[in-house]
Amino acid sequence: MCQLLALNSNQPAAITFSFEGFVARGGLTDHHRDGWGIAFFEDTGCRLFVDYEASITSPVAQLIKHYPIKSTNIIAHIRRATQGKVSLPNCHPFMRELWGKYWVFAHNGDLKNFHPELSGNYLPVGVTDSEIAFCYLLQSLRERHPHREPCRAALFASVQEITREIAGHGVFNFLLSNGDAMFAHCSTNLHWVQRAYPFSTAQLTDCELSIDFRKHCYPNDLITVIATKPLTSNEDWQQFSRGELNMFVNGEIAEQYKPAAERSKPVVLAAVPHAC
Questions:
Q1: What are the Cα distances from residue 187, in Å, to 106, 126, 262?
Q2: In the CATH scheme, what is the homologous superfamily, with its name and number, of domain 3-262?
């Protein structure tokens, strides 16, 4: 299956270090050779780069590795095709507009017998189950909140309910962002690490590269990195529970849902109501 990478922070940050290790998984240390992509939110805009070449050999990926674009929300993806041929329209992340904002989505998994009725506001360009799921997710959000973006708690509740419906069809690990918040859902495998003061040195697992974050970060910086598998060997990566959905804002978990069977302690379902 594919692999996911995201960054959410309280100040614009570059992802070049983590991306270096992530790119290696696209054909060098792993077999995800069927395309890749990355999206950077900037104010109300979004820079999206995709390529059907393997990330380890893609000239576009080499550009990103050496071009430190800073953002508070970044989503990246390397693909191993399960549905749809290797082609540009089937590369993640996907981007659409909702409530006057760009939304970006990337998926790791395989959805079976998932053929939702799409109204026409959001239609897939490629032929992947991932893009269909994204279109259905946005369509469902617009139907629930037709006039404007709801408050954070109501938005989280809606995303959680739609996610549960889609995840009933198979593996649905995903990243979703509107530039303000980062949603991350785990069906099978997803991890996150928070980098904060006092910063330390990190060592990538996929290549011989380390970084001393004390030389690159300010004391008030708060950065969360999310990945399918931990990217470094000496940091305290936290594993998502199966069925867990988190909303990260400014480098911290702002809303969280865990299925009752997975909770080791009470978790407030921060978004039961649909109005605030």
A1: 14, 23, 12
A2: Aminohydrolase, N-terminal nucleophile (Ntn) domain (3.60.20.10)
